[in-house]
Design a protein that fits this description.
The chain is 38% helix and 17% strand. The chain has 2 domains: 197 residues, Isopropylmalate Dehydrogenase (3-Layer(aba) Sandwich); 136 residues, Isopropylmalate Dehydrogenase (3-Layer(aba) Sandwich), CATH 3.40.718.10. The protein has a 12-stranded mixed sheet, sandwiched between helices. The chain is of the alpha/beta class. α8 crosses α9. It is built from 12 helices and 12 strands. A hairpin with a 5-residue loop joins β11 and β12.
C-alpha cells in the first residue's frame, strides 16, 4: 500500500519544533507508516541535528514528487528564509515568527494542490507572530483563512477518544453563554460531517453536560433543561445518533471505554483536561471541516528547554502517525 506523504512545517526556529521534528523522523516504525516532507530551512535543520546528535542527513528536494522513501534522510523543502543572526533559540523574535508562518503557508499550498496528503504541524509562538505582524492568533486561524474554511472544528484524539469543542478561546463566562440549542445542533451536525470526512462513518455522539450532575433538572443551572436536552431531542428526531447531556465527570471515561465515537465538550478546558490528564503527550489536535487534513501536537514552543536536547518527540510522532492513519480515508470538504 502506498504510504501517505505528510508535510511537516518546521515550526518556530527558536522553539522545540526543529528538535522534535528531527527526533520524530529518527523513529523507524513511523517511517514505515508514512513518507514525510519537512518544510523549513536547511540551516535550522542542521542545527537541530547537531545538538541532538542524530545521524540523519537532510535531503533537499524542489518538489513533493522528489521525496525519497529513505529512513536515513530528512526530505526537506528549503525555503532559505532565515539566517543564524535572525533569531536566538529560546527567545521571542520577529524573524523566527515570520519564518514559522511561511513554513505553514507553504505546507498549506502543497496540501491544497494535492501534492501532499496531509499536514502535521509543530509549535508556533503567538508573541513571535505578533512581533512579525503576522495577522493570525494561531494555526487554526491560518488554516481556516488560507483554505477558505469558516470556523473550522477542533477535534482532540487520544486512544481513539475523539473530543470536539463547542467553544475554544473565549472566557468561561462567554463559553456558558454559547451553550445554546441552535449552536449545539449546528456543531453536532458538523461533527458528523467531519467524522465522515475522516472515514468514521458511524457511531454515537455523546454531549457533555455543563453544570454539576447536568444541573439536576434545573436545581443548579438550567442550561441542560433549556438548551442541551432540547437540542439532543431534536437531533434524535432528525435521525442523528446523539445522546446527552451526560455528566462531564463520567462522559470521557465512558468514551475511553468505547461507548461513543465522539464527545461534544461544551467548553475548552472541559475536554482539554480530560484528554491531557489521560495522556498529555499523545493528545493530538485535528482541524476538521477543511478541504485538507491537518493534525498537530498540542503543546507550545517550550522556549525554556529549546536547544537543550531534552524535548520529547512523542506528540510529534503521534501527530504524524494520526495524519497517516486518516489520510487514506480523508475526503476533501466542499469549502
Amino acid at each position: 500500500m502506498k504510504k501517505p506523504l505528510i508535510a511537516i512545517p518546521l515550526g518556530d526556529p527558536a522553539g522545540i519544533g526543529p528538535e522534535i521534528v528531527v527526533k520524530s523522523l529518527a523513529d523507524r516504525e513511523l517511517r514505515d507508516e508514512a513518507l514525510t516532507l519537512v518544510i523549513g530551512d536547511l540551516r535550522v535543520v542542521e542545527e537541530a541535528l547537531d545538538f541532538t546528535g542524530l545521524s540523519l542527513k537532510p535531503y533537499l528536494v524542489d518538489s513533493a514528487a522528489e521525496v525519497p522513501d529513505d529512513p536515513d534522510t530528512i526530505p526537506l523543502l528549503d525555503l532559505k528564509n532565515i539566517a543564524a543572526a535572525d533569531y536566538t533559540i529560546g527567545q521571542v523574535g520577529a524573524r523566527a515568527g515570520r519564518a514559522a508562518y511561511e513554513f505553514i503557508e507553504k505546507s498549506i499550498e502543497l496540501a491544497m494542490n494535492r501534492e501532499v496528503d496531509a499536514v502535521a504541524t509543530t509549535p508556533i509562538n503567538k508573541e513571535s507572530f505578533h512581533a512579525a505582524n503576522v495577522p493570525y492568533i494561531g494555526h487554526t486561524e491560518i488554516f481556516g483563512d488560507l483554505t477558505g474554511t469558516a470556523d473550522p472544528l477542533t477535534m482532540f484524539e487520544v486512544n481513539h477518544m475523539r473530543i470536539f469543542f463547542l467553544s475554544r478561546h473565549v472566557s468561561l463566562r462567554q463559553a456558558c453563554d454559547l451553550v445554546t440549542k441552535d449552536r449545539i445542533k449546528d456543531y453536532s451536525v458538523r461533527i458528523f460531517d467531519a467524522l465522515e470526512q475522516l472515514g468514521v462513518k458511524s457511531g454515537l455522539l455523546g454531549v457533555a453536560g455543563l453544570n454539576p450532575h447536568c444541573g439536576e433538572h434545573g436545581l443548579f443551572g438550567d442550561e441542560e433543561v433549556n438548551h442541551v436536552t432540547p437540542a439532543v431531542e431534536e437531533l434524535q428526531a432528525e435521525g442523528y445518533d446523539v445522546v446527552g447531556p451526560i455528566g462531564a465527570d463520567s462522559i470521557f471515561h465512558l468514551a475511553l471505554q468505547g461507548n461513543f465515537a465522539s464527545v461534544l465538550s461544551l467548553y475548552h478546558d472541559q475536554g482539554h483536561i480530560a484528554s491531557k490528564t489521560y495522556d498529555f503527550e499523545r493528545t493530538i489536535s485535528v482541524t476538521c471541516g477543511m478541504p485538507i487534513l491537518r493534525t498537530s501536537v498540542d503543546h507550545g514552543t517550550a522556549f525554556d528547554i529549546a536547544g537543550r536536547n531534552i524535548a520529547s518527540a512523542v506528540s510529534m510522532v503521534e501527530a504524524i502517525r494520526l495524519a497517516a492513519e486518516y489520510a487514506p480515508n480523508f475526503v476533501s470538504s466542499k469549502n
